[in-house]
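Many introductory courses stop at the sequence. We go one step further.
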Amino acid sequence: MESINVKVLDEEEDDQSDPEIEDPVTPIVTDNNISQREVGSTDTPTVIDSSIEPAAKIQKNHPVDNIIGQVEEGRNTRKTARVDYRKMAGLFAEACLVSKIEPKDVKAALLDECWISAMQEELLQFKRNDVWELVPQPTDHNVIGTKCIFKNKSDEHANVIRNKARLVAQGYTQVEGVDFEETFAPVARLEAIRLLLALACLLKFKLYQMHVKTAFLNGFVQEEVYVEQPKGFIDSQYPEHVYKLKKAMYGLKQAPRAWYERLTIFLLKKGYVRGCVDNTLFIRKEVGKMMVTQIYVDDIVFGGVSDQLVKQFVQQMEGEFEMSMVGELKYFLGIQINQTKESIFITRSKYAKNLVKKFGLETASSKRTPLATHVKITKDEGGVSVDISKSRNWAGNFEDRKSTSGGCFFLGNNLVSWFSRKQNSISLSTAEAEYIAAGSACTQLLWMKQMLEEYGVNPGAMTLYCDNKSAICISKNPVEHSRTKHIDIRHHFIRDLVENKQVVLEYVATEKQLADIFTKGLDVSQFENLRLALGLCTFDK
């Protein structure tokens, strides 16, 4: 795989290139006719060039021949932290060129040069992509309004680093059948991303990420759409004219679909095959080589066992669109990803911390979960009474007697997907409940099987573990008796899969059933054992 080498300076190299500075240097005026007391007191302003480094002071007791090191660096009496003044100057320059206040409208933005530059940069993207053309206002067409959205971009330390202006169309004024037809655009499922991560872990290839800048401005619109000139940037010669769109823009209802179609056409021309199950998956295969691309709107995850195909894909995308190469996949859809040579670790700690911060629970006291079993709960006689009707409307009927289905799915040892949901019907026995849950799990198994086949992997017969022997017998033997004859036909879906040898049911002891963590209230020890068996682990800081 292609790697990026980063050179880290050791202490000796750093000492030569960046001298230690103990105290801020006061510029010295070299005119001998002016004493130190006269400096700064004269009425004539003195211009000091801060780029000139002060000369080291040489005394007679310290000849030049006896000085060790660079004379120009001066003398350090103690170890001090190095200061990168060039980097600090860059930070100060950026701080002076950005505004920390987000304007509410164009009128307020036009009072700030930083936001004027941001709006001009946005309009330059429209010109560069040839999005529209100025035409006289038609009398028989709807003209859509425009609006500018202002947002500050911050770094990981919450420092404002960029002022971003986005010109959008007021899509709520569009007329269906006139200004737009189809609006649906597929996006990758989160479990599809986890499946790709698991496959990359098994096949030992790295995944990378890139971002398409102003992606929606690349999609072609099929309808005849007109938008108003943006406020504050109206053409002085033709103030009554409007823009006729050649391509889509943000805010249009058909913009996501137009971008998806544009990207799809481009990838198909380059030899990629679109997935039949997942339309956001594009695969290119050659002899002994494979390149995988997963699309999520304007974010693209890609990788493959061939470095040549990966480099070629990057060159093709950069040649067609304005791209931002993020690099190795580290953060995607709220998932933090750490790729090593032997494994891939994923976590959502950042997402969890953001939730805690969102609801103001940073200072809340922590409690161990799950709670201990067999705890006696006493009634609070002095508490506030509960409105039963409101509780039922909010949480549903607590006495519907419907069971909960749960399951987890692995590719190798990698947990890819899981679910926990209430069943639609009431089960009259545990065997019936387990049988319905097994059939529900088979739908996800078939999806995974079809996805793997698109990657070129033949999974063969898939194994489904169930902790109820009666449910296994019902799936293998189409018997009908008083306890099973009432089961709905759609739940017998699993019988066809077992008969066609697509799914193999095997018995697993209840204490080893991993899916119990999604359906049952377990004690702490059993909960932690199942959690560890799922592949979840804790990393020490």
